[in-house]
Inverse folding.
């Protein structure tokens, strides 16, 4: 399945972003992947898809935290 391959590739990719625009682009990409995987999960109820979504969510949270900065 192409969607799972894209998600796994994103997960394995190195997450060192030099600019804010790279962080924003990456955040949007991972959000799109998570939502697409969620639609697949609703049909299949495969626990492996849920685990992948959880791992991607952790990555997304780290990116979002870096985007927002420190108060």
């Amino acid at each position: 399945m192409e969607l799972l391959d894209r998600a796994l590739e994103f997960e394995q990719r190195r997450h060192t972003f030099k600019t804010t625009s790279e962080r924003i682009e990456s955040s949007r990409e991972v959000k799109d992947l998570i939502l697409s995987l969620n639609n697949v999960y609703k049909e299949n109820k495969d626990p492996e898809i849920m685990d992948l979504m959880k791992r991607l969510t952790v990555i997304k949270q780290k990116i979002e935290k870096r985007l927002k900065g420190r108060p």
The longest helix spans residues 20-44.
